[in-house]
Specification:
The complex is a heterodimer of chains A (334) and B (497).
Chain A (H helix, E strand, L loop, with lengths): L10 H4 E2 L2 E2 L28 H17 L3 E5 L3 H6 L4 E2 L5 E3 L5 H14 L6 E7 H6 L2 H9 L5 E6 L40 H7 L4 E6 L3 H13 L4 E6 L3 H4 L6 H10 L6 E4 L2 E5 L8 H5 L15 H18 L9
Parallel strand pairs in A: 3-5, 3-6, 6-7, 7-9, 8-9
Antiparallel strand pairs in A: 1-2, 8-10, 10-11
Chain B lengths: L1 E5 H11 L4 E4 L6 H12 L7 E4 L3 H13 L4 E5 L1 H6 L1 H9 L5 E6 L13 H4 L7 E4 L3 H18 L3 E6 L7 E5 L3 H7 L26 H30 L7 E4 L12 E6 L3 H14 L3 E7 L1 E3 L3 H8 L4 E6 L2 E2 L3 E2 H9 L7 E5 L9 H12 L6 E3 L41 H7 L34 E2 H6 L16 H6 L1
Parallel strand pairs in B: 2-3, 2-4, 4-5, 5-7, 6-7, 10-11, 10-13, 13-16, 16-17
Antiparallel strand pairs in B: 1-8, 6-12, 9-11, 14-15
Classes of the chains: A alpha/beta (334), B alpha/beta (497).
The complex binds thiamine diphosphate, iron/sulfur cluster and magnesium ion (MG).
């Protein structure tokens, strides 16, 4: 790929901290002829972090594979906002089949490629948290268990956004959704429910599992690179802000993802064959309220009729993550 | 009390009036507003003693419903389209187990290509599942039907789908009247299930049946479906009496002359289900003055299919026009297949008009045009309303959809070319349209050459090839490049080598 220097790119692509990176170290997004796998013209909401993450993931994968990439997409916002006939925003061989089956469709693609001696062509399956944690779980677990050569990417915006913000198995406790309204005795999503798919993936002892957020896109890019170095089943779980579903400002999507990591509610780590191999420590810890308060889906926890008990339980969750993943211990691996 | 309510909210309130024990559902457009409203009612205490369960798939939704019903609970769920297909195995199981579950189907198209808008392909795909399928014409009927459905389901111990057109009804606000709680309580007694999991009387449900009894099981299920007609009619009449007004009926016959009678000579019988019949009524009223006389037969019950009532209502009509909102590919309309069977011996020509697939509006104007064509014998045996000729591509063996001579089905009409719309295998053509010329054995749906310049759809509609948004943006006149056309090499083309 020819490297063309662009003077005014986002710092996330050209620099780390205040340091301008050497050309070799720069993000794939820094190059003028980056693959633009998900190109302009799609219909995502302003500030949609799912769109942002998808472009970073697939552009990186395109670069790593030299363009030999095929993608299976589950039903959901990403699919709907990118492909209303006759327009498609994808510049990669891409298929949408159903809501529940992206992992299996990807397995099929990999199988044909393998049978035809084209193992150089790599396969990514992608979907939302609903398509991953809930309806797609059986197909996903099957793909993991057989160790099929697929990278599955979950864009976790913590609800069924495409159908109007209903609760999913990845919706955090207390969050208001359209099926867990903020009314009644315990408003919002129920405590003690929900699942964290990265752990389920790890239980399959697949070669690589990682979490990431749109707050640290360089980390996301690095994890895609690592994932693509491995063969077999791999899983990447990305927290992606959804301004519509979370009730946040469209300009705050990156900030919200950062607050989620810095308060301890979303742990960022990598694991190989079921064991955690790397953790991104919290750089400057913030109280969970800093993350929750700007989101309308948690509005009922605050104010005169707020819910201190719920806040306390959420604080407890952050504490537990910090303990479990050693999020405050610089350089320490679990 | 009359209220202005969104269809979904109204249905949710009607369901709440039936005092369900368990509500469980998985979100899918256009059903979402119904189950969201119910989740609020359970939370805020309006719907008491009810468990609301957010499940992880439609398969789970129907399976939870099965368990809840087997345990003796009154159960409600709702779905549409892909969701209905995803629960298919459990759907057949629920009816086989004779569980009186009520489920709303917010009718929506089936993919691929994925489409969230209204037609009736979803529930009609489950026509042989052993569920009753009752259709609402408007939101008042949808409200009433949910209450009636529980009565029917529990009396005959069979599950019922209440079908209402997605968006057209679910998302439309209308002035409606909900029955009162007292009226519903008087009409719908507490559930006394035929069979349930019980500690006092432990029984096995869902046992295996070998060749020695399987046929008999199905025979009895068949008989139960036939007996359902009586139960449906009685429940509908009882409900109307309970609320003291007009309500849903399994079959409704209407004519602009307002006479209550079957169709007669010189008239066209128009048969359809759901909201389209409202528009058809408006078109029919206007056409009456122009001498196009029609009799509308609105089917409220699709399963069981009221064949005899339909046959009687058709009477001595000149011809029958069926508005098909679901298509059997390579065959024709789904509803018209049932109608054809029920009128097999009448010798009246029938036209299947496939209309409003995937949410395309069925306008009064297009309906009027269709009925006028039928009147003058210019309607084919199978027609696609408002088909965009320029969007369908040519196949080698194809002949134009708009054949020069039309009316293949009309006795004595000029012969249509082989393979013309509606032309069927010799057997069928002879049976349903006496005098119609025998069609070629190869009855693949013909298509017309695509016009150059416009976006053309490829034959394999499921894999719609597309130009990227980018490519579209760069085309100066804004016209989308032809499907499957690679206007410019994509990044992957450059790399894959
Ligand atoms: C079998 C089936 N059930 C339900 C749906 C409706 N549906 C489409 S997208 C969607 C939600 C997607 O949520 P998620 O996977 O979290 O992706 P997001 O839109 O949030 O990115 C649902 C419920 C469907 N298409 N198919
Ligand atoms: S609803 Fe949320 S996930 Fe969907 S396009 Fe909008 S911001 Fe993105
Ligand atoms: Mg989601």
């Amino acid at each position: 790929m020819a490297k063309v220097h662009i003077p005014f790119m986002q710092t996330g692509a050209l620099a780390v901290g205040g340091r301008l990176l050497d050309e070799d170290e720069r993000s794939v997004q820094a190059w003028q002829d980056r693959p633009s796998t998900l190109t302009r013209g799609h219909r995502a909401c302003q500030g949609c972090a799912e769109a942002l993450a998808a472009r970073w993931v697939l552009d990186t994968a395109m670069e790593v594979t030299g363009g030999k990439l095929m993608v299976a997409n589950a039903t959901g916002c990403l699919e709907v906002f990118s492909t209303l006939y006759p327009e498609s925003a994808w510049r990669v061989p891409w298929i949408h089949s159903l809501f529940a089956n992206a992992a299996s469709v990807a397995t099929g693609i990999a199988a044909t490629n393998h049978a035809k001696g084209r193992d150089d062509i790599r396969v990514i399956a992608q979907g939302g948290d609903g398509g991953t944690a809930d309806i797609g779980m059986a197909c996903l677990s099957g793909m993991f268990e057989r160790n099929d050569d697929v990278l599955y990417v979950c864009y976790d915006n913590q609800a069924y956004m495409n159908t109007g913000v209903q609760r999913s198995g990845a919706t955090p406790p207390a969050a208001r959704t359209s099926t867990t309204p903020a009314v009644g005795l315990s408003p919002g999503n129920t405590f003690g429910q929900g699942k964290f798919v990265p752990k389920i993936a790890m239980a399959h002892e697949i070669p690589y599992v990682a979490t990431a957020t749109v707050a640290d896109l360089r980390d996301l890019e690095a994890k895609v690179r690592t994932a693509m170095k491995h063969r077999g089943a791999r899983y990447l779980h990305i927290l992606v802000t959804c301004p519509l579903g979370w009730g946040t400002k469209t300009a705050a999507s990156i900030k919200m993802a950062r607050l989620a990591t810095q308060c301890g509610l979303f742990p960022v780590f990598e694991a190989e064959y079921g064991d955690i191999t790397g953790v991104t420590p919290i750089r400057s810890r913030v109280p969970v309220e800093d993350y929750l308060r700007p989101q309308r889906r948690f509005a009922h926890l605050f104010g005169p009729r707020g819910d201190e008990a719920a806040l306390e339980r959420i604080r407890g969750q952050a504490e537990r993550n910090i303990r479990q993943y050693h999020l405050l211990e610089e350089g320490v691996l679990a | 009390m009359l209220e202005l309510l969104e269809g979904s909210k109204a249905v949710a309130r009607a369901v709440a009036l039936t005092r369900p024990d368990v509500v469980c559902a998985y979100p899918i457009s256009p059903q979402t507003h119904i189950v969201e409203a119910l989740s609020v009612m359970v939370r805020d205490g309006h719907l008491k003693d009810c468990d609301y369960i957010n499940v992880e798939s439609e398969f789970a939704a129907m399976s939870v419903s099965i368990g809840a019903s087997a345990a003796g609970g009154r159960v409600y769920t709702a779905t549409a389209s892909q969701g209905l297909l995803y629960m298919a195995e459990a759907i057949y199981n629920a009816s086989g187990l004779k569980l009186p579950i009520v489920m709303t189907v917010a009718n929506r198209a089936l993919g691929a290509p994925i489409n969230i808008w209204n037609d009736q392909s979803d529930s009609l795909s489950q026509r042989d599942s052993g569920w009753l399928q009752l259709f609402a014409v408007d939101n008042q009927e949808a409200i009433d039907l949910h209450v009636i459905a529980y009565k029917i389901a529990e009396q005959i111990s069979l599950p019922v789908m209440v079908c209402m057109d997605g968006f057209v009804l679910t998302h439309a606000s209308d002035v409606v009247e909900l029955p009162t709680q007292e009226q519903v309580d008087a009409f719908l007694p507490p559930l006394a299930p035929l069979e349930k999991l019980s500690l006092k009387n432990p029984r096995s449900m869902g046992m295996m049946a070998g060749p020695d009894v399987f046929t008999e099981t199905k025979y009895l299920a068949h008989q139960a479906m036939i007996q359902a007609h009586t139960v449906i009619a009685r429940a509908a009449a009882d409900f109307a009496a309970a609320v003291g007004r007009e309500s849903w009926r399994p079959v409704r016959v209407w004519g602009p002359d307002l006479e209550d009678r079957p169709a007669r000579q010189g008239e066209i019988a128009v048969i359809g289900m759901g909201s389209v019949m409202g528009t058809t009524q408006a078109a029919a009223a206007r056409l009456w003055e122009q001498g196009v006389k029609t009799r509308l037969i609105t089917l409220g019950s699709y399963r069981p299919f009221p064949a005899r009532t339909v046959r009687e209502a058709i009477g001595t009509a000149d011809r029958v026009v069926v508005l098909d909102r679901a298509l059997m590919l390579g065959v024709g309309g789904v509803l018209s297949a049932d109608v054809r069977r029920s009128m097999a011996r009448l010798g009246i020509p029938m036209h299947s008009v496939v209309a409003g697939l995937g949410g395309r509006s069925i306008t009064e104007r297009s309906l009027a045009k269709t009925l006028r064509q039928a009147k003058v014998g210019e309607l084919g045996e199978l027609e696609f309303m408002d088909l965009k000729q320029d969007l369908v591509t040519m196949s080698d063996a194809a002949v134009p959809v708009r054949a020069p001579a039309r009316g293949a089905a009309r006795p004595g009409a000029a012969a249509a070319p082989a393979g013309a719309p509606g032309a069927e295998g010799p057997d069928d053509a002879a049976a349903s349209a006496p005098g119609a010329p025998a069609a070629a054995a190869d009855d693949a749906m013909p298509t017309k050459p695509a016009q150059t310049g416009g976006p053309a759809l490829t034959a394999s509609a499921g894999s719609l090839g597309t130009a990227t948004a980018d490519e579209k943006a760069t085309s100066a006149d804004g016209a989308a490049p032809a499907a499957g056309d690679r206007a410019a090499p994509t990044a992957s083309d450059r790399r894959e080598g």
